[in-house]
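User: Could you write out the 3D structure of this protein bound to adenosine monophosphate? I've included everything you need below.
Assistant: Certainly. Input first, then the structure.
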Amino acid sequence: MKSILTVGSVAFDSVKTPFGEVSRVVAGAATYFSIAASFFTDVRLVGVVGDDFLDDHLSVFTDRRVDLDGLQRVAGETFRWRGEYSSDLNARETIYTHLNVFEDFSPRIPDRFQTTPFVFLANIHPALQLEVLEQVKQPELVALDTMNYWIEGTPAELQKVLGRVNVLVINDSEARQLSGEANLVKAARIIQGMGPERVVIKRGEYGVLMTKPDGFFAVPGLPLDRVCDPTGAGDTFAGGFVGFLAAATQITDQAVNQAVIAGSVMASFAVEEFGLDRLLTLTDMEIKQRFGAFKRLTHFDEL
Ligand code: AMP
């Protein structure tokens, strides 16, 4: 079992969906990722919070395999984000993004984290993602997330970091934007040409499409009767995906396919409650059972 280093946002989120509203809850891309991945292996989190982030707020990490030695606390306010969802939960409007302490953040990877074999660069400025890669020593696998903001705003830096990663985890609209191609199959191949050997495209409730050396692997989203808040589903998917691979004895084609299921399982739980709530009560047994649900959903006999 290998550990994972992740760098990204630890935040206070406010979220409104047709099912309710929460205000100033602990969240952030690196938080969702770490908690999901910690069900599979040890995680080392690097990020920054402000002095309004109290010890109590850290309780989401209590008794989990998340090492917080790389989480700096500095004077100022913690990163804040507010999102509101449409009635079918498929569209989201960002009401505000307050970078706050993230504005002057420069990731410092503690010495003992620098040889971590797996690295997940959560959605932050690609120049910061590059700074992280400069500090880590020969990782076995680097995975990256990004968003429209960086695709539009910092394309040169993004191309540079894409040239240095093994896996890109990205959502469908961002894959289309990055490649300039509407067809997702073609978009994925174009993005592979930018560097990553594997491109994993998250399609929200429709599931996931992943490139393979000889084709594609795809799974539908699990039909759920309770979807409350999709925030963090992408980061949670990434946590399950990278977490599963880091725990695998070998990264075979089969293990990568199973990792897509692990990511889908974790994301399917995350959306059932607001914020981190569902992940915080989740058990290993429930994860195992939902693997079974995915198997039953997609299994059929050949003619
Ligand atoms: P997702 O729903 O996967 O897009 O992730 C939502 C999480 O990402 C929330 O908890 C936010 O706090 C965080 N987030 C939103 N915008 C940004 C940003 N520009 N940089 C870093 N984290 C962000």
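The pocket of adenosine monophosphate is lined by residues 9, 11, 13, 27-29, 81, 97, 123-124, 149, 231-235 (CB under 6 Å).
User: Perfect, thank you.
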